[in-house]
Amino acid sequence: MDYLVLLFGANDAVLPGAITKQHVPIDRYKKNLTKIINHPRIAAHKPHILLVTPPPLDEIKTTPRSIENGHQGAVRKSAISAAYSEVAREVARENPGVILVDLWKAQMDKAISLTPDDYTPGGPWLGDPENGKQGGLDTLLHDGLHMSGSGYQVFYESLKPFIGKEWHGLADDDRKGFVIPDWRELLELKPNLNTGD
């Protein structure tokens, strides 16, 4: 195992009592991340550990769904989701060698760039009811919580600088060091191979 990418917290940050039963208290969330990062079976592999903050939450978009499910209001809050992201940042700072991938910041920066007039620096974040505007989060989070294709593109671009450095600068068809042969190599070995079989 060369890399371990950890992304937890988006579901954990749901309020206690939500029908999903996914709530993990923030102090437990921090302990869980620290325990995973330092687990002997993980450490034995000496992977590059990339700790990813949870993405932002579009509370404006998730609240109607919470109400439809029988809750009095939102079961997810933008500020609480942001706090879980801050805890992930703390864990990365407290564990030397852990690489932080700040997905919350990358997603929020992208959302603001898509709709710059919807955010005032220092004001409430996009997706927060105090702001009243979803802005670009509407594009990045298909249901307000889970990433859309555009959101995953931001995630990929955030991970890309930290993964596969051993192949940076190689031509796209150079597969030195690959464990599993490239499909083109298989076709050279077995020209009649149907890769769909």
From TrEMBL:
Residues in SGNH hydrolase-type esterase domain copies: 2-154
InterPro entries: Iah1-like (IPR045136), SGNH_hydro (IPR013830), SGNH_hydro_sf (IPR036514)
Gene3D superfamilies for the chain: SGNH hydrolase
Any Pfam family matching the protein: Lipase_GDSL_2
Highest rank taxon of the organism: Eukaryota
Name of the protein described by the UniProt record: SGNH hydrolase-type esterase domain-containing protein
Organism the protein comes from: Fusarium odoratissimum (strain NRRL 54006)
